Amino acid sequence: MKNHPIPEEEAEKELDSIFHEIKQVFRVSGVNLNFRTWATYPKFFPVLWESIRPVAETRLFEESSNHIRALAARLAEKLPRLDAPTSVGLGESQIFQIQAALDLYHYINPKLLVISSLVEYSCQHPTMSEFQSQRQDHELIPRGIPLRMYPMEMIDETPDDATLRRTFRDIQRTLGLPGINSDYRTLALWPEYLVSVWHRLKPVVTHPLYLETALTLREAAQQMASHVLPRLTVPEDQLRILGRKRTQFLETTAQFTQLLPPLIINIVLISLDWRSRQDLERSPFPIEFSSPVLETST
Amino acid sequence: MTWREFQRLQMVSRVNDRFVSYVEAGDGPPVILIHGIPVWGYLWHGIYSGLARTRRVLIPDLLGFGFSDKTDCFNRSIACQAHMITAWMTQLGIPRATIIGHDIGGGVALRMATLFPAQVEALIVMNTVCYDSWPIELMLQFGHPEAHRKLSASLAVRLLRQALKRGFASSLNRKILEGLLAPYSTETGKLSLIRNAAALNTNLTTEITHLLSGISIPTLVLWGMEDRFQPIHYGERLAKDIHGSRLIRVKDARHFLMWDQPEIVTKHLLDFLDRTVPSRPLLV
């Protein structure tokens, strides 16, 4: 990810409109790193978004993401527990807000993994066909940020606090992140809590079962992209817009599909300190459908 | 007390689809302290423990302020804040309380006293917004929708810190000033504060002018005499319009009188509360 992601507040004109639409369609209170990074390809990004939008607002996409979330909850339960809150004296409101922040990322991260996998797959297999909204599973989901969703509030990437700066560097190095992700920047609103969580999470991320879990999630998302969801309409001539940056864009997207599974697992592991596996298998912001399209059991 | 220590004391309530963070301390007749803009409940941390010796003190962060809900999709006007406080009181099982409001928190208190008098035992307003005394120029500029793009969070906090200094007669500890603005140092916090500033509306105090003379509960108007944001003549007008109210002018104090003269302010608050809402039933 060589380009510096565009902060939400710096988006102007067409990009500002697209960022707004992303929040509405993805039902999320902020624009995540994927989109802010893809936005650094200014000619291609509007084309890409036009192809993502019709898929992302379907029930099929929502339920594909629900499937990944449920799978992550079941698999992560087998990993060591963190028990982080016991070491930090948190207040009632702080606990409430941490849980709300975790719900936000527990909701959006699986959606980001599925869409990144779909973008990767579709760019590798460009098509000329248009997306067809005919099947029953292309029923549209309601647009808009859920009323009770926590805002995607984050502290600066380079915080004033020296302990936080060190923790950010350690997270980046250990997880191989090109930048510090929104999840950790949000949890840094409660610095002592983040430090405690990371101290306990760090040894887990090298556990063989953890790595296997991440791989399973990645493969499940790839399966969704190649066999369940309709391919994005990214015609070859549109990909040419990228010119020499095409390889860089594909590498960046592939990097997201690698980095998101650990982020999903980490949020589940942190959330398991507060919630049951059964709770975490469900979407924190469910949409009422008459009958499920996908079975979520293994 | 640092702002982090104060934040750790905060509890939380769901009010409809929003959440409210608040600090509660002490036991006795309930007293609710409402802050103004651009600060949060931490404003009161220097004086609340004095009140909590004989009172049940509750300090909410208004919606969109401090560590209450800061999502970007709801009305933050003082009219809505007054509804929120009354709904929150009901949720906590508090039918009636003394309301103490500062700045726009005073505007909330005035609306409660005029529109929901059954829930207000006594009223204290401190350097409050009233009539057409507000919004001040700084907040008008800050509330412009473009401010979100023109100001980074760090720049916004620096500008506010500079501007707020004019609200203190004494030179304030830098840590306290940083604490008062801490919740707005992120982009989300900044945007929320901009939305709060955009919601400032003179009409919401001018429209209750004709109701002020109908306030029949005990009322104290406490004013830092050297306030440059809300000049003393507004306090004088308010005290005349609310029959039976008392105006106390606090010398060597500006807008943030609870910081300029904490002992004097606490003494006046306790004197008034002891006379109007005794902490224990009087023996006959």
How large is the radius of gyration of chain A?
A: 19 Å
Task: Tell me how many strands of chain B there are.
Answer: 8
**How large is the share of residues in beta strands of chain B?**
15-25%
What spatial form of chain B do the alpha-carbon principal axes imply? globular
Strand order of the largest sheet of chain B: 1-2-4-3-5-6-7-8
In terms of quaternary structure, what is this?
A: heterodimer
Overview of the molecule:
The complex is a heterodimer of chains A (298) and B (284). Chain A is an all-alpha fold and 298 residues long. Chain A contains twelve helices and no strands. In chain A, α1 (13-26) runs parallel beside α3 (44-56) and α4 runs antiparallel to α9 (208-228). The radius of gyration of chain A is 19 Å and the shape is globular. The two termini of chain A are 34 Å apart. With 284 residues, chain B is an alpha/beta fold. An eight-stranded mixed sheet of chain B has the order 1-2-4-3-5-6-7-8, sandwiched between helices. In chain B, α3 crosses α4 (104-115). The longest helix of chain B has 15 residues, at 262-276. At the A-B interface, α5 of A face β2 and α9 of B.
Keywords:
heterodimer; A: 298 residues; mainly alpha; B: alpha/beta; 8 strands
Q: Quick summary of this structure?
A:
The complex is a heterodimer of chains A (298) and B (284). With 298 residues, chain A is mostly helical.
Q: Could you give the topology of this structure?
A:
The complex is a heterodimer of chains A (298) and B (284).
Chain A: H1 13-26, H2 33-38, H3 44-56, H4 59-76, H5 92-124, H6 162-175, H7 182-187, H8 191-201, H9 208-228, H10 236-239, H11 246-271, H12 277-281
Chain B: H1 3-8, E1 11-15, E2 18-25, E3 30-34, H2 48-51, E4 56-60, H3 78-91, E5 97-103, H4 104-115, E6 120-128, H5 137-142, H6 147-150, H7 153-165, H8 174-181, H9 187-198, H10 203-206, H11 209-212, E7 219-224, H12 232-241, E8 246-250, H13 257-260, H14 262-276
Parallel strand pairs in B: 3-4, 3-5, 5-6, 6-7, 7-8
Antiparallel strand pairs in B: 1-2, 2-4
